[in-house]
Each structure stands twice: as structure tokens, then as C-alpha cells.
Amino acid sequence: MKSLKFKNTLFLLLTLLVVHSSIAQSKIDEPIKNFEKLWSEFNDRYANFELKKVNWNQVYKKYRSLINEKTTNDSLFEVCSLMINELKDDHVNLIEYKKGKIVKLNENATPTRMLEKFPKSKKKSPNITDLIKVTDLTLQEQGFSEFTKEKKIIKYSTSDQYGYIDIRSMQGIGKGKLKSILNDAIKAFENKKGVIVDVRFNGGGDDKFSYEIAGRFTNQTIVGHRKKTRKKGTEDFTPLKTWYLKPTGDKQFLKPVVLVTSDYSASATDVFALVMKELPNVTIVGDYTRGIFSDMDDFKLPNGWWATLSHQQYFSADMINYEGKGVEPHVEVLNPATDIDNKSDSVMIKALEVLQEKTISSVKKP
């Protein structure tokens, strides 16, 4: 199967559901064979053992002893999940399907700080929906308009002085539609002193999508990032490939920009933050991004399970690898759970303060 270039985990899983909907499993066929296949594929293709400080041979010894020919389906899945979770990599997944639906998915070994405080479940409070509502309320109290032509993925609004754009995904709409929305947004921001770009709730998508957006905030061509791919079965990598950020659209916004991030800002959104940080008019406020950059490469086990892994290394323009660490904000601030009761988004308040400082200093410059 061709390697997948989309980067958002949820998108990948949904795509695999469609492509492999006929897969159904009733029993394990040779547990040892499946375990060995999983381990060896990672051994031959995974790109970041050294960076993660994981000795994969030691991991094999730790988990191989737990598998024999009588190992049940459930037990095998549990052991294999524990093994790959040693890598603490959100692009590493083990997936079992039955009748076209996911029946098992390895648990994330390192939950995000954002989702620990604000889970997705509406049965828990406070949750991420509560935080988004507080963000909207905070913007309204700061003089921002209702969202213009509100979209599911991208929405924007303005106040007398500033613009705000909320980007929830780096995929999900076509290139033409994306350009149209960005054209409208940049036009709305044209006479504003500064703009806030909010990607705290953006789990990723496609790097090209990220570059299309980032290109609206520069009028120069610069190095965005570099990447290389591990050659299967060797310790070698392909030559570095350089991605260039170029101006996109008819007009660009070149005045101060505050990019707001969280550790839920992942994958292609990691890349977006990495590239935006190269721009002199951008200040990042919030938390470190998630730190999962590689495209996900997928493969099938003999018993029909699917697995994904990170087979690439990404670098900033100055050759720093932020895998597992995330892109560092210039101003670090996180939303406390008390923001919900206070009905005030403290990260957004800080972002507005920083934007005001940056707009004042930009006016003072000759």
C-alpha cells in the first residue's frame, strides 16, 4: 500500500476505514509471527530510535517473552501496544478492524496537557468545547465581531484594531476553497494593526495546507523546513529535502502576528508553527506544540491488523529536530481549568497583550 502523506492521526484512521473496510478478524493467526512482523517493520523503518533514546533490541527482549503460540487476540494486542508505546510517538498506531470499523486502537502513551485539562468528552467538565466557548466569549468582550461566514475548519473575526483567525485543521477543504477563505480573511485584516492566528485546537493534516496559510504572512521566499526519510532496512536516510515558504495569494499580511499554540497543535500544525517561527513578524504565545512531524507510513500484519510509524526526520531551517519536544513558544502560557468558571480565556488575553506590545513597537521603528 502506498505510504500515506496525510499527517493527522484521526484522518489517517478514517481513511484506512474506507480503504480497508472489508477487513474482518475472528482469530489470531500465529501470534509470534505477527509480533515478529510488527517489531521487525519498526526495526527496519522507524526513524527516531536514537532521538527517542529507545534501544529497540532491548524492547524486543522485554516483550517477546510475553508472547507464545497460545497468546490470545486480546493479549497480543495489549502486548504489542505496550511495545510500540515505548516510543511515545502519536504517529505510531496499532489498529484492529472488524466489519470495517475500528474495534481496537492502542492507547496514547502520552496524553496532551490540553486534553487532560479539557477532554473531548462532553460528559466531563470542564471540556474542550467549554474552553472554545470561553474563547469566543473573551473575543466578544474584547470587541471582536461575530465570526464572518463561520466555517467548520477556518473562521475569522475583527475588532477595531485587530484580526483573529481560528484554524481547526490543516485539511478537509480543497485548495481553491482554502484560497478563497484566506483571500477574504486577509482582505478583512488589511487595515488592522495585527492579527492573532489560533491553532490550539488543530490536530494537523497536510503540510501543503500549512504552507498555503503561512505564505499569507510573508512577502519573501525563505527556507521553511527540511526533511529526510529512512531507507528501509538500513541506517541510512535519503538526502535532505528542503521546503521553501513562498508568498501565497495576491496580498499578504506583514504586520505583527501572534500565533497561539497548545500541545494539541500537532503534526502538520507542528510544521506550521515551525515555519511561522521563521518569520520576523510572528510571535508564538501558548504552549509547546505536540512534536510529531513525520508523515505516517503504514503496513499490514499477517493477521489483518494495521500499524503506522514515523519514518522521517524533520528539521527547522537551522537544522534543529523538534520531534518529541515541539516548537517552543516565545511566551509560554497555558489555560488553567479555572478559565471556564471565570469565563475568560487567559491565553487569549495574553495573546492580545503581546499583540498590542508588538504593534506599538512596530510603529516606533523607523
UniProtKB/TrEMBL annotation:
Signal peptide (from-to): 1-24
Coiled coil: none
Record's keyword terms, sorted: Signal
Occurrences of domain Tail specific protease (ranges): 132-334
One Pfam family matching this protein: Peptidase_S41
InterPro entries, sorted: ClpP/crotonase-like_dom_sf (IPR029045), Tail-specific_protease (IPR005151), Tricorn_C1 (IPR028204)
Entry superkingdom: Bacteria
Protein name: S41 family peptidase
Protein species of origin: Aquimarina gracilis
